[in-house]
Design brief:
- With about 170 residues, the protein is α+β, with helices and mostly antiparallel strands.
- The protein has one domain: Glutaredoxin.
- The chain contains six helices and nine strands, in the order ββαβααβαβαββββα.
- The strands form two sheets. A seven-stranded mixed sheet has the order 2-1-5-4-3-8-9. The protein has a two-stranded antiparallel sheet with strand order 6-7.
- β4, α4 and β5 form a beta-alpha-beta unit.
- The radius of gyration is 14 Å and the shape is globular.
- It starts with 11 loop residues before the first strand and ends with a helix.
- Thiol-specific peroxidase that catalyzes the reduction of hydrogen peroxide and organic hydroperoxides to water and alcohols, respectively. Plays a role in cell protection against oxidative stress by detoxifying peroxides.
- This is Glutathione-dependent peroxiredoxin.
- Pfam families: Redoxin.
- It is an enzyme of class 1 (oxidoreductase).
């Protein structure tokens, strides 16, 4: 399992791009994790699924509300990662008004969740294997803080906890 001091696993995540530019085309674009994190301080939070109750009512809105404060604390980017496809993550981002605040990164096949060892088996609930709920502060691809939620909880991966860690 991923821990503080580890480098993020190699791989790609996808983001649905709304406006063509900066070398990105409209629609899903793949981003190499190592290249995307190089030289940056990134707040990453992961959750079980788009449009799910806690994720939509608390987790994403908290990061959207704290985006400016996180950036003032030195965070270059905020990523929301979920085992959903880029189309779903794009639609969820529009619904949550994340544009310019939180990058909605798709881990469509769950490869990133599996590589981190932070999976959540929701097969019995009809959702397959998903990501656990967690947050981490990453600097130049290395995990500096890691906040993993207990099953069914939302206590340590919130935006306020991340903001306190980014300021420390």
């Amino acid at each position: 399992m991923l821990k503080v001091g580890d480098k993020l696993p190699a791989g790609t995540l996808q983001e649905f791009i709304e406006v063509e530019g900066n070398g990105c085309s409209l629609g899903p674009n793949s981003f190499d994790i190592e290249k995307a994190t190089a030289g940056k301080k990134i707040a990453i939070f992961a959750l079980p699924g788009a449009f799910t109750p806690t994720c939509s009512a608390q987790h994403v809105p908290g990061y959207v509300q704290q985006a400016e404060a996180l950036k003032a604390a030195g965070v270059d980017e905020i990523w929301c990662v979920s085992v959903n496809d880029a189309f779903v993550m794009g639609a969820w981002g529009r619904d949550q008004k994340t544009a310019g605040k939180v990058r909605m990164m798709a881990d469509g096949s769950g490869a990133f969740a599996q590589a981190t060892g932070l999976t959540l088996d929701l097969v019995a609930r009809g959702m397959g294997v998903r990501s656990q709920r967690y947050s981490m502060l990453v600097e130049d691809g290395v995990v500096k803080t890691l906040n993993i939620e207990a099953p069914g909880k939302f206590e340590v991966s919130d935006a306020n906890t991340m903001l306190a860690q980014a300021k420390a």
